[in-house]
Amino acid sequence: MFNLLRIAVRNLRRYRRRTILTASLIVTGVVFVSVFVAVSGSFKDMMIGQITDSFLGHIQIHRKGYVASIDSLPLTMNLKSQAVKKIDEAIKGIPEIEAYSPRIKFAGMFSNFVETTNIKVNGVYPEKEIKTAPFLLSRIREGEKIIKKGQILVPELLAKGMKAKVGDMVVVIATNKDGSVNGKQFRVGGILESVTGPGGRDGYIHIEDATEILRMDNMEMSEIAIRIKEFSQLHETHNKLQDMLSKERTEQGKPIFEVHTWEKLSPFYNVATMIDMMTFFIKLMLVAIVLISIMNVMIMAVYERVREIGTIAAIGTLPGKILSMFVIEGFCLGLIGAVIGSILGGAIIFVINFSEITFNFGRQKGLILSTSVNPNDLLVISVIVIMVSVLASLQPAFKASRMDPVQALRHV
User: Fold this and answer.
1) pLDDT at residue number 365
2) By three-state DSSP, how is residue 215 classified?
3) Residue 98: its pLDDT value, please?
4) Cα–Cα 20 to 30 A to 165, which of 39, 72, 141, 242?
5) Tally of CB atoms within 10 A around 194
6) Strand ranges, E, within 76-195
7) What share of the chain is helix, strand, coil (3-state, %, to 5)?
8) Cβ atoms within 10 A of the Cβ of 66, count?
9) Cα-flanking dihedrals φ and ψ of residue 27, to 5°?
10) 8 Å CB contact between 299 and 397
11) Contact partners, residue 143, CB within 8 Å, separation at least 6
């Protein structure tokens, strides 16, 4: 086998120009794919981080049926205090959970005493909310970076439309679940930048102010947002939490709670899925490049070395060894391309990070592109390239091993 490897390497050196050209194509493909995987993967991670850490959380728990009617924020489907206690117990039994934040969400009217518009209000415990959505405070463009009682964080475009500024007095009006209307004056404590674009109309107040507006005698929650310690354990933690809460059922035997990951709650999950599909098709393109390049060069090698193949067959070289020789040549080409391509890809990724390229995402400006590639991804790409190289060289190698020595020696 070692002798066959030496012969294969010698043949690749004999046809240096063709070897360099073929290896260059493979290197280009590997570099392109590795950089694309790094950039798209980093963009996807950043996008998920912005959404989950700004307002959504990694996992949310609701009363069964709430998510189906989440657009209307129904107060009649809030979690009662007993249900919240059971969720607290379940959360405390899962060490993978870092923080959680109970929220009261309701639709209300926002008035500046001259005009009125609608607003979605989030009543939160400030400390718990900041631990669960750590980017929340960084979204406050004006005012103090805190949520105080008697103050409201107003979404940026709503504040602009209603000409509300930090320090202004406004009124929030809401209808409680019994149908009665109540209002409360707030001071604008801050202007909140939207994550999801111009449609964002979510304001934040202290949870005790929310219970006062809604005239709640007993605390009820619309949802509980959860942040986990390691994002890679998202589905494992979700399944564990769901298993624990699925034991809680109504008298009719129906589940009380529903547990969703961010993927079921945000339309941006579809964008993340599209990025994964694009990565898959880019890898397919790499396979096509390698397949065509290796097969082309090996077919040409067989045609150019017909008399040589006839000679080594005539002196007693077995067809299996002739086949192995050409397959090893293809293997070496794939190996060289994968190694050099991985090194160059890593160097380009380093340069991208060093350059600190900035871009905008939604309302977020000046985000720095921080690329990284998982060593496992590079390993998978390299293995694919080498395997395809071997497969592409099989047909020409098989043809060479089946040549008749007499006919081959007569070849001109």
Assistant:
1) 67
2) coil
3) 94
4) 72
5) 20
6) 97-111, 116-124, 140-143, 151-155, 169-175, 181-192
7) 55, 20, 25
8) 22
9) -60, -45
10) no
11) 153, 166, 188, 189, 190, 191
DSSP code, position 239: H
The token pair at 17 is: 């120009």
Distances (CA, A) of 16 to 19, 39, 178, 341: 5, 34, 84, 18
Q: Number of helices and strands (H, E) in the chain?
A: 12, 12
For position 121, what pLDDT does the model report? 93
Nearest in space to 257 (alpha carbons), one of 97, 65, 57: 65
Look up residue 55 and give its DSSP letter. Answer: I
Query: Which pLDDT value is given to residue 333?
Result: 86
Residue type at position 67:
V
Q: Work out the number of other CB atoms within 10 angstroms of the CB of residue 266.
A: 19
Q: Where are the alpha helices (DSSP H) in 119-195?
A: 126-132, 156-162
Which residues in the chain land under pLDDT 50?
A: none
Rounded-to-integer distance, Cα 292 and Cα 330, Å: 12
Task: Tell me if residue 92 falls in helix, strand or coil.
Answer: helix
DSSP string, 261-311: EGGGT-THHHHHHHHHHHHHHHHHHHHHHHHHHHHHHHHHHHHHTHHHHHH
**Is the overall model pTM greater than 0.85, yes or no?**
no
SS3 60: strand
Residue 223, phi then psi, degrees to nearest 5: -160, 165
Strand-pairing partners, residue 332, are: none
Query: Which residue type, as a one-letter code, is found at position 109?
Result: M
Distance between CA 173 and CA 189 in Å, rounded? Answer: 18
Q: Where are the alpha helices (H) located in 61-136, listed in sequence order?
A: 81-92, 126-132
Per DSSP, what are the bridge partners of residue 151?
Answer: 187
Helix (H, G, I), strand (E, B) or coil at 25: helix
pLDDT of residue 205: 95
